[in-house]
Amino acid sequence: MNRKQRRRQEKTNGKILSAAQSGKDVPLQQAIEMMVSSYEKGNREEAYKIARSVMKVLQDDIDILHFAGTVALELGRYEDALEHLEKAVAVKPDHAEAWNGLGHAYLALKKVEPGIEACQKAVALLNDMPEAHYNLGNAFSAAGRMEDAIQSFAAALEHRPAFPEALNNMGNALQAMRRFDEAADAFGQAIKINPDFTGARFNRANALIAGGKAKQAIAAYKESIQANPKHLASYNNLATVYRQLGQLPESAVTYRQALKINDAVAELHNNLGVALQDCGEAEDAAACFKRALELAPQNAEAAFNLHAAVFDDQDFAPATEALEQALSIDPHHERSHFMLGCIEDHAGLAENAEKHFAALHWTADGPHPAVDSWLYIKQARTPATRWFAPASETLRYCLEQASETGAVLEFGVRYGATLRLIAADAGQPVHGFDSFE
After folding, report:
1. Which contiguous run of DSSP H or E holds residue 33?
2. Which of 9, 122, 177, 364 might form a disulfide with 100, Cβ 3.0–4.6 angstroms?
3. Would you say residue 6 has pLDDT above 60?
């Protein structure tokens, strides 16, 4: 460095910046030191503020540009990160870490293809950087290229075996390919490395249920809840599995446990309503659906479910109102169109019914299957034929009509859901039979 260059450098280093925590003006070198110190102390906002001030003087300094881009990423300011890191790679095209950060920023902004290209450049420049392989795997996943994603996550793990996030995301890619056992194994490895990784515990349970291993999934959801007692998604999925298995009381109890943690989740109220309706508790179910609609007025499913809870074939008005509410939220809600079509047709309003039936997806082979079923019912019913929405109401009515004395039997028990409903109202011992083959 000659004398002229040295004087220019000294002048630059001596420039005064308003960049310190105190708000006082400080020399450039001191500002940089404060920037680094703030970052190391965890004060990202202060570090980024100082970095932006420093960049006004050192506009093309690769280290400052990369630093500012990295901190902006950590703060979730992805547009700012993009600006800094694009400039960084323009100044130094072989800066692998800057390309990696740039790929991360593109992905956060859902710019998938540029994200893939940036991550590939990072990998090409520095093949042993696990973060670059990891980000490339995330980019491939976002593009739906799951095989490529799995290979990238495997490369990340080759360079950093204890990388739970890579194992978790590899599990997600494997699950997307319906390789459920492998996915569950990847999630399990992530948990071994980080037992507090709630996301991996939850994902493992999901992979187990998707692979048809319900009992193992229940145990996994319980482990997830034990590790994080406030993880609502684990409660919700555990309760849903219970309901699918016909363990309705357990399902309702689990949904209620979740609602004790957070009563303002519409989905939980809606799902509890479905479980209670399956249990035959129509009044409590209706209250749940109404609460779900209070919390999420645009929840068409809750409005549709409400119609079943208030359904009465002696007075269709409450059910009709709920179905019309569902269609006002979602004009394409097919099940609401179908049920309204049936009610209108039952009332002799054929023209109105046809409008609702026409909203269903018909095929060239003939009537929509649901409409075909309704037409059969119309032909086969008599003036005494009753109409119920929940299965529990149908079973209760049938028990009332069974006036002959004798044994009460159910053949085809499956998980015992309807057997429990029958037993609750039969007033005598009930026997269930199933070969379980």
Report:
1. helix 28-40
2. 122
3. no
Distance CA 239, CA 256 (A): 9
What is the pLDDT at residue 17? 47
192 HSE (CA, 13 A, CB side): 9
Beta strand 25-27 with 430-433: parallel, antiparallel or unpaired? unpaired
Q: Which helix (H) or strand (E) holds 27?
A: strand 25-27
Q: How large is the greatest C-alpha to C-alpha distance in the chain, in angstroms? A: 113
Question: Is residue 7 scored above 90 in pLDDT?
Answer: no
Q: Residue by residue, what is the 3-state secondary structure of 352-408?
A: HHHHHHHCCCCECCECCHHHHHHHHHHHHCCCCCCCCCCHHHHHHHHHHHCCCCCCE
Please report which helix (H) or strand (E) contains residue 26, including its range.
strand 25-27
Closest CA to 416 of 436, 389, 393: 436
Axis-axis angle for helices 164-176, 180-193 (nearest 10): 170
Distances (CA, A) of 219 to 150, 185, 210, 213, 322: 27, 15, 14, 10, 37
Q: To which residue do tokens 């709630």 refer? A: 198
> Quick check: 45 and 19 in contact, CB under 8 A?
no
Q: State whether the Cα torsion 345-349-354-355 is positive or negative.
A: negative
Cβ neighbours of residue 272 under 8 Å, at least 6 residues apart? Answer: 239, 252, 255, 256, 259, 288
Which of 234, 287, 241 has the alpha carbon at shortest distance from 258? Answer: 234
Buried b (16+ CB within 10 A) or exposed e, 245-258: bbbbebbbebbebb
pLDDT in tens, 192-228: 999 999 999 999 999 999 999 999 999 999 999 999 9
Q: Which helix (H) or strand (E) element contains residue 409?
A: strand 408-411
Q: Supply 399's token pair.
A: 């028990």
3-state secondary structure of 60: coil
Tokens coding 213: 């291993």
Over residues 129-184, the pLDDT tens digits come to 999 999 999 999 999 999 999 999 999 999 999 999 999 999 999 999 999 999 99
Q: What is the mean pLDDT of the chain?
A: 92
DSSP string, 259-320: HHH-TT-HHHHHHHHHHHHHTT-HHHHHHHHHHHHHH-TT-HHHHHHHHHHT--TT--HHHH
To the nearest 10°, the Cα dihedral for 172, 177, 180, 183?
-30
Q: Which helix (H) or strand (E) holds 16?
A: strand 16-18
119: pLDDT strictly greater than 80 = yes
